[in-house]
Structure formats: C-alpha cells, structure tokens
Specification:
- This is SDR family oxidoreductase.
- InterPro entries: NAD(P)-bd_dom_sf, Sc_DH/Rdtase_CS, SDR_fam, SDR_oxidoreductase.
- Belongs to the short-chain dehydrogenases/reductases (SDR) family.
- The chain contains ten helices and seven strands.
- The chain is α/β, with parallel strands linked by helices.
- It is globular.
- The protein starts with 20 loop residues before the first strand and ends in a 5-residue tail after the last helix.
- Bound molecules: NADP nicotinamide-adenine-dinucleotide phosphate.
- NADP nicotinamide-adenine-dinucleotide phosphate binds next to α1, α4 and α6.
Length: about 300
C-alpha cells in the first residue's frame, strides 16, 4: 500500500472547488460505486477512494457513460492505513479547499460462529469496519468543524441494530459504528455538522459472495449444520434484495436535507424487523429468528 496521495488526477482546479465536494470510501464496487456516481450526477465533485486503483475501471466507465467523469476523481485509500488517510485528506483540502460530505462506506463481512473465527480476523474486521470509520472521520472533522457545515454519513447495517448468529464480528463492528455515530452526532450538532446512519438490509452486492467465500468453519466444527442453514438463508435473502441504487439515492437525498434524522433504515423486511424488536418481547423475537434461520436443533 502506498502511503502517499495517489490518484488518477484529471486537470482539476487547485483553487477551492466551486462545487460541493464529497469523499466516499470503498468506491470500487457496490454501494460505494453507486454513491460516488449518484453524488457526481447531483453536482458534487466526488473523491472516490478505493484501496486498489486497479479496480477503478467500472466506476470510471459508468461515469464516462453518464458524462460525469470530470466530477469523479479516484484516489487510492485503504481505510486501515491511518497515515494515508491523513495524507489523502490534506491533499484533497489543498486541492479543493473543502469537504462537504463524507460517506464512510468501506467494509466487509466476517462470517462464522464466534468459536470458529480466529481473533486476528475479529481484529481485522474491527480495524476496517469500525476503526476505519473513526480514522477517516477524525481526519475530515477539523475541516468540517471549521467550515461550520457538512454531512458525515456512516453506512451501517440492519446488523448494527439486530444481532444475527453466524456474523458476530460483522454485527459487533456495525453496533460499534452505531454507538460512535450517536455520540458524534451530539458532539457536532453545535458546529453545524450532521452525522447520519444509513442502515441497509440485505442487497445484492459483492459483500455477500466475498463473505461466503471466506467463511470461518471446519469440517469438524460443532456449528457446521447451523452455519450451512444460515448461509442458505443469507444467500436467498441477499439474492432477493432490492436494487442497491436505493441506498445511493437515499444518501443523495440525505445530503439535501438541512436537518436529517440520525437513522435511515432501508431494504426488504427491515422496518418490520425493527418494529418487532422495539414492540415485541425479545424472547419471542429470538424464537422467531432461530426458527426462521433453521438453527433450532442442538
Ligand atoms: N450489501 C448489503 O447487503 C449491505 C447491507 C448492509 C450494509 N452494507 C454495508 O455497505 C458497505 C458497502 O458494502 P457493499 O455491500 O457495497 O459491498 P462491496 O461491493 O463488497 O463493497 C465494499 C467496498 O469496501 C471496500 N473495502 C473493504 N475493505 C477496505 C479497506 N480496508 N479500505 C478501503 N476499502 C475497503 C471494498 O474494496 P475491495 O473491492 O478492494 O474489497 C469495496 O470497495 C459496507 O460497509 C457494508 O457493511 C452492505
């Protein structure tokens, strides 16, 4: 990983940008790519960061097709590289003079039952999904606070509201993002910076395949049959998920709301599940989830 600022710079001005600017992490695929494109379409100068610039072609091709490639700059950034985060943020401020929107989107899902997931994988999950969000936010904050305006949009998950078995590292990382965002929102309100959580349910992006391919288990795992039941449930829900563009459109809408809510949950079945968690006895919800996931038997 290159620590210094590296981008496919197009000839953009070095004075403060006339356009509002948005920094998106994890833009090589999925929501991040769609969010970058959608914000550029809405008139933002987008700094689309990704950890491997070799993966920028789909984003750039889509941007060219839509005639908005001049408003998207791809920049290399791994959110676990804290030095690179500071370098990238400073270089962007030097170039554009402002950051109006930060979308903390980069993330991945570690799957497996708690006993089967090595500690190093728990640490890596937290490093990316939680510490990555903290580090990028901290880098951007001095500028947004000084500007007295800005949006920090953290892509959490329904897994940040409800714990699902077989995904505890992912669930823990998203619950951490939720707590962090709640506290940060109160800290930044007086400074005019809005902190928002977007909480998607299952959408058909690459995250699921990547997660299924790297699932932690073994032939002799006592959880093997339960994991298989959960995997088949997850595959079904992910493939039947709504169009991921919904999430990108929601992010663009949120950036246009002067006083957005803290949480925006979206996706098939998500509202029902959240209402059930809020209104029903928790023991009933637990029984229903275990039955639904097919993990009842010992
Ligand atoms: N899809 C869903 O159903 C769903 C539901 C709820 C929440 N989410 C959340 O949505 C966000 C985006 O996921 P997605 O569904 O769009 O999946 P995706 O297509 O796999 O996109 C994830 C992005 O994050 C990047 N990334 C992973 N680790 C990174 C790191 N250390 N530094 C920088 N970038 C990194 C990936 O880069 P590489 O290509 O290099 O791996 C990729 O660009 C994640 O935070 C995820 O938890 C997704």
């Amino acid at each position: 990983m290159n620590n210094s600022y590296s981008s496919t710079s197009q000839s953009l001005p070095s004075l403060p940008s006339a356009l509002p600017t948005a920094l998106v992490t994890g833009s090589s695929s999925g929501f991040g790519q769609l969010i970058a494109l959608t914000l550029a379409q809405k008139g933002y100068q987008v700094i689309a960061t990704m950890r491997d610039l070799n993966k920028q072609a789909p984003l750039i091709n889509e941007a060219k097709k839509a005639g908005i490639d001049m408003r998207i700059e791809s920049v290399e950034l791994d959110v676990t590289n804290h030095k690179a985060i500071l370098d990238v943020t400073k270089a962007l401020i030097d170039k554009y003079g402002r950051i109006d929107v930060l979308v903390n989107n980069a993330g991945y899902a570690v799957g497996g039952f708690v006993e089967d997931v090595p500690l190093a994988d728990w640490q890596r999950q937290m490093e990316t999904n939680f510490m990555g969000v903290v580090a990028v936010t901290k880098a951007v904050l001095p500028y947004m606070r000084e500007q007295g305006t800005g949006y920090i949009i953290n892509i959490s998950s329904i897994s940040g509201r409800v714990g699902f078995p077989g995904y505890a590292p992912y669930v823990a990382s998203k619950f951490a993002v939720e707590g962090f965002s709640e506290a940060l929102r109160l800290e930044l309100k007086p400074f005019g910076v809005q902190v928002v959580l977007v909480e998607p349910g299952a959408y058909p992006t690459n995250i699921w395949k990547k997660g299924f391919d790297t699932i932690h288990t073994s032939q002799h795992s006592p959880y093997q049959d339960k994991l298989q039941a959960i995997l088949s449930y997850s595959r079904k829900t992910a493939s039947q998920g709504a169009d991921p563009q919904e999430v990108a459109d929601a992010v663009a809408r949120i950036c246009a709301i002067r006083y957005p809510k803290l949480r925006y949950a979206m996706g098939n079945g998500v509202s029902l599940l959240l209402w059930a968690k809020m209104l029903l006895p928790y023991s009933f919800l637990e029984r229903t989830m275990i039955k639904m996931l097919g993990t009842t038997k010992k």
